[in-house]
Specification:
Layout (H helix, E strand, L loop, with lengths): L4 E6 L6 H15 L3 E6 L7 H13 L2 E7 L7 H9 L16 E8 L9 H11 L2 E2 L4 E4 L3 E2 L2 E2 L2 H23 L11
Parallel strand pairs: 1-2, 1-3, 3-4, 4-5, 4-6
Antiparallel strand pairs: 7-8
Helix pairs in contact: 1-5
């Protein structure tokens, strides 16, 4: 599995709770032998240069982590804009940075009331982009994460398992003749 690239695209500012939780996911991916990188898309303003670099890196990645804090039980506008700007040509030679790639989904929020907010991404990725979602997704509450650390040992372990699983699925997709060739239906 060594040498697979996992790229995290985080729909918030650098250093927040979501970024911290994604750090644990990437630790798990690194433990499984992956090379990792992360891009924070900013807060309130869309950072076009960062987004362009993230799109370019996502194109060459073997797997991705999409992460977002929850706002009104949904993912952030900057992450939506990032996804909206990904090339997606639905006919002929379908191309997309997410096509046939494993994608782990991570969300954070102030309470358990928002944990279903990641469901929109979990449904969008396979149907619109023909990505392979790494189940089950991960959600962390703000009180489980502070000062750059995941305080809850169970959450940290789940994050690292998600990182491992993302790399394992990427290796399976890379070894398959058919999995990378899937296309969205429409």
């Amino acid at each position: 599995m060594s040498g697979l690239a996992v790229v995290a695209v985080i729909g918030s500012a650098d250093g927040g709770t979501t970024h911290t939780l994604v750090g644990e996911v990437l630790k798990g991916a690194e433990q499984a032998g992956a090379l990792t990188s992360a891009f924070c898309l900013g807060r309130g303003e869309y950072l076009a240069d960062v987004a362009a670099a993230a799109r370019e890196r996502a194109d060459g990645a073997d797997a991705l982590v999409l992460a977002t804090p929850m706002y009104r039980s949904s993912f952030t506008g900057v992450l939506k804009q990032f996804l909206d700007e990904l090339p997606r040509v639905p006919h002929g030679d379908f191309e997309s940075a997410l096509l046939g790639k494993p994608v782990a989904v991570v969300g954070t929020g102030g309470s358990d009331h928002h944990y279903l907010g990641i469901d929109a991404l979990l449904g969008l990725l396979p149907r619109f982009f023909a990505s392979y979602v790494v189940p089950p997704g991960l959600y962390g509450r703000a009180n489980q994460i502070a000062d750059g650390h995941v305080l809850d040992d169970e959450l940290a372990a789940a994050a690292r398992r998600l990182g491992h699983a993302t790399v394992e699925l990427a290796a399976a997709v890379a070894a398959s003749a058919q999995l990378p060739r899937q296309r969205p239906q429409f």
